[in-house]
Design goal:
Blueprint lengths: L5 H9 L4 H20 L3 H16 L8 H8 L4 H14 L11 H8 L4 H14 L2 H15 L4 H17 L8 H7 L5 H17 L3 H5 L3 H13 L7 E2 L2 E2 L1 H15 L3 H17 L5 H16 L4 H15 L4 H14 L4 H5 L2 H6 L6 H14 L5 H14 L2 H18 L3 H15 L5 H13 L4 H14 L4 H20 L14 H13 L5 H14 L6 H12 L7 H13 L6 H4 L22 H5 L10 H10 E2 L3 H4 L39 H10 L31 E6 L2 E9 L6 E10 L7 E10 L3 E4 L12 E9 L8 E8 L5 E8 L8
Antiparallel strand pairs: 1-2, 3-7, 4-5, 5-6, 6-9, 7-10, 8-9, 10-11
Length: about 850
């Protein structure tokens, strides 16, 4: 027997003990409803559709009742229309063809004398409107926006928002109506009108200019809400209509962004809202949050921004983690706007690092890194290192990278820099990226005065702990390079530093690393190379023989790379006359900033910490421009090797930061090992011993090339990029015939009026981030009066955008004068591509 009432059906379903029983009841009742629909039983239609909607909400099929819903809508009874429209909204969507049958009913009901029936039609259109329905019924909705009934105006505004989303071109029809509704005293109409205007501004930014004239009106509405007394109709925990206040603040944020006049008009009311809103309850906090967002978006006064950041700082002391999370997230966005104001809340932010909520700790960590500068780097780094010691593993990789990058940028001195990185390696050496390890090795190599200090610190660290891989690799590399300095000892104030180290102690330590449980293939490669290097650092014959015997043990290693190294190193002992020269200390590498890859947990490190400041004599604004506009790279990253027909020098892939290092620099090349005869040289070449760097170890190499263009095409166009002090630089571009994305530029240096010989010529260039640059060495670094020199640069430009060059020209003269100039050139015609 079918259930005649919805209540009976609900009771029967709730009485089912199993899912199978429920399905049986639903199937039986669905069959009875289908039969009733076929019999055209008008009396039971209302009840059947109600039961069908309940079945639909339980997740069972109910699509067969769509037409019955349309029949209910056509009824004259309000109850039938209400249930029919509800069924249409639940059972239909904008993609179904049946929906076209509803258009006429909606149009008729929108012109009905009963405002509640009009509201039903507007509500239905606002939920399921398709683009076709939006176009057909746009005129009716526009007319209802001007209705004298506030209930209808409110519904029509929401319906208009749906129409704009479906057909953005129709928003012009609602501009005047929406603007007029801003004068309405009814809070519901005002709220929906503002919501409609916000949607218009998002869909068409040009609309913002139209509504900027309404800023004074919005300010008056907001002032009335803030200063109004108790209103029972709109009061929410002591705050007058917080929903309307939030909407007004959001619209003011949109209208004030990028417009000084509009921002000025709303500064006073924003300050009033920020100071008079009660923050003890969540309602007040929501208004304060929107106020802060608006203040930071518009062109507000500096005092107002400080007030906004102080509000966020107060949020951080709230016990509710949701509010603290919102505050930290907003501070992360605003820290770049007013860093000094955020710095005042540094202690509270650091306290959040100890919060039990991982999301709070993550946001506080990001903000802490953004606050690091020259004045607080010691304090913040100490706190971050303390957090690193107890941090979850998912934080450690991002933290190690950011701490090292911040130390590299703000280190007060080299010793503090080295100590900080060493501390990171001790605490989280297994989570340090390879590029950070390479940067540390480069730092140690460049800081020659602290080589002994660093070697002893690493030796002492490895004696106590070899479980951190990066610490082990760094220590092994430094000991291999500076083993002779290590055994000489030194006078340092730290108690943990070893005062006297013997050759045997060093060998014992390296052997213990190989025999330890943490050794892997990379570690074995490092240790074998370090042991081999120590044979040219140690003077004891017994130590050298011990190392040789130990290396020979790995001649049969199952790891191919380790075995190859061991065999090569064992054979090198046969060439005693050249072994010390081959194993000579690595040359000091050039300064180079690493571009660290992005991770999910840290984002872009350069975004968090800021651009690396280059120390140069150029003006401050020039430095900022170059950091923002240009990036580094090499053609070798993007060009197929077959298209690169010239050899690039070792320093061809210098980072953009090298362009602005003070003074002229010269490429450092590895010492050339003296050989007795060609047979020995060929033997070494066959063994691959001229590059002892290995995996992760900087290799010694020396590469030279001549300044010849790879392009066979020629061009007579000369573009002057620099002409000052009697020295001129001209550019002659030509497209590479092998690759249309590459532009070869022949640079010619003219000594036209210096009067004396130009010496120590250094020419460097940078390009925008979308392009890549490769430079070949100049034909000469000295230019006689009236003479010229050439140099070739190659620009990979896959996007065919305008080539922009930032150039640095450095040279000196025999009289002691020195020139260091920056120039920018973007005069190549687009037709060159």
């Amino acid at each position: 027997m079918p259930y005649y009432r919805l209540k009976d059906l609900i009771k029967a379903i709730r009485a089912c003990k199993t899912a199978a029983d429920e399905r049986a009841v639903i199937q039986k009742e669905s069959a009875a409803i289908r039969t009733s629909f076929k019999e055209e039983n008008n009396d039971a239609r209302h009840s059947n559709v109600a039961k069908l909607l309940y079945i639909h909400m339980l997740g069972y099929p109910a699509h067969f009742g769509q037409i019955e819903c349309l029949k209910l809508v056509a009824s004259n009874r309000f109850a039938d229309k209400r249930l029919g429209y509800l069924g249409i909204m639940l059972l239909l969507d904008e993609n179904q063809e049946v929906l076209t049958l509803v258009t006429n009913s909606l149009k008729n009901d929108m012109n009905h004398s009963n405002m509640y029936i009009v509201g039903l039609a507007l509500c239905t259109l606002g939920n399921i409107s398709s683009p076709e329905m939006a176009r057909d019924l746009c005129a009716e909705v526009e007319k209802l926006l001007g209705s004298s009934n506030t209930y209808i105006r409110k519904k029509a505004a929401l319906c208009a928002m749906r129409i704009i989303r479906k057909v953005p071109d129709l928003q012009e029809n609602f501009l005047n109506r929406a603007k007029n509704n801003l004068n309405d005293r009814n809070h519901g109409v005002l709220l929906t009108a503002i919501t409609l205007i916000i949607e218009m501004c998002y869909k068409n930014p040009e609309t913002v200019q139209t509504f900027r004239k309404t800023v004074p009106l919005l300010v008056r509405h907001l002032k009335t809400l803030v200063s109004a007394g108790f209103s029972q109709e709109h009061d929410v925990t002591g705050v007058t209509d917080p929903f309307l206040q939030v909407k007004i603040l959001r619209l003011l944020r949109i209208l004030g962004k990028g417009d000084a006049e509009a921002s000025e008009a709303m500064n006073d009311i924003l300050a009033q809202v920020a100071t008079n809103t009660e923050s003890s309850k969540n309602v007040g906090n929501s208004i304060l949050y929107e106020t802060v967002q608006t203040i930071m978006e518009i062109q507000s006064e500096s005092g107002l921004r400080v007030l906004a950041i102080n509000i966020l700082g107060k949020f951080l002391t709230n016990r509710d983690n949701n509010i603290r999370y919102v505050a930290l997230t907003t501070l992360n966005k605003t820290v770049s706007i007013d860093t000094n104001a955020v710095q005042r809340h540094r202690n509270i932010i650091l306290d959040c690092l100890r919060d039990g909520d991982i999301s709070i700790r993550r946001r506080a960590l990001e903000l802490s890194f953004a606050l690091i500068n020259e004045s607080n780097v010691r304090v913040l780094t100490r706190e971050l290192l303390a957090f690193l010691e107890v941090a979850d593993n998912e934080f450690k990789q991002g933290m190690t990278t950011k701490i090292c990058l911040a130390a590299d940028r703000f280190a007060p001195n080299k010793r503090w820099h080295i100590d900080t990185v060493l501390r990171v390696l001790k605490l989280a050496g297994n989570f340090v990226r390879e590029e950070i390890l390479s940067n540390f090795i480069r730092l140690v190599s460049q800081t020659t005065e602290l080589n002994a200090y660093t070697a002893q610190k690493l030796y002492a660290s490895l004696k106590s702990d070899i479980s951190q891989e990066s610490l082990t690799l760094a220590g092994v590399w430094v000991i291999g390079e500076y083993g002779d300095i290590l055994i000489k000892g030194g006078n340092f104030e730290e108690e943990e530093l070893v005062k006297e180290v013997t050759e045997s102690d060093v060998i014992d330590l390296l052997e213990s690393i190989l025999a330890g449980p943490y050794a892997n293939q990379v570690t074995r490669e490092y240790v074998l190379t370090a042991l081999m290097k120590l044979t040219s650092r140690f003077t004891s014959i017994s130590s050298i023989q011990r190392i040789q015997a130990y290396i020979e043990k790995y001649n049969t290693s199952i790891e191919v790379e380790v075995q190859q190294r061991a065999v090569e190193y064992s054979n090198l002992f046969k060439f005693e006359s050249i072994r010390p020269a081959v194993l000579e200390r690595m040359p000091i590498p050039e300064v180079k900033e690493e571009v660290v890859r992005q991770t999910e947990d840290t984002g872009s490190l350069l975004d968090d910490i800021g651009p690396v400041t280059a120390t140069t004599a150029t003006p401050q604004n020039a430095k900022n421009d170059i950091m923002n506009l240009f990036s580094s790279g090499s053609l070798l990253d993007d060009i197929d090797p077959a298209t690169a027909t010239t050899a690039a020098p070792l320093n061809a892939k210098n980072d953009i930061m090298n362009l602005f290092s003070p003074g002229p620099t010269t490429p450092t090349t590895a010492p050339v090992a003296p050989t007795q005869n060609a047979q020995q040289t060929n033997a070494l070449d066959s063994l691959g011993l001229l590059g002892l760097g290995g995996a992760g170890i900087p290799s010694q190499s020396s590469t030279t090339s001549t300044s010849t263009s790879t392009s066979t095409s020629t061009s007579t166009d000369q573009y002057v990029a620099y002409n000052k002090n009697g020295f001129k630089v001209s550019l002659n571009p030509s497209k590479d015939p092998n690759n249309s994305n590459i532009l070869n530029i022949e640079v010619t240096f003219h000594n036209v009026g210096v009067g004396v010989t130009v010496q120590n010529l250094l020419f460097q260039a940078a390009v925008p981030k979308t392009q890549k640059l490769q430079m070949q060495p100049p034909s000469s670094t000295s230019i006689l009066p009236g003479a010229t020199a050439q140099q070739t640069i190659r620009v990979a430009n896959p996007q065919k955008s305008n080539v922009r060059l930032r150039l640095r020209i450095v040279y000196s003269t025999p009289t002691g004068a020195k020139v260091d100039e920056i120039a920018e050139f973007n005069g190549f015609p687009q037709e060159i591509w």
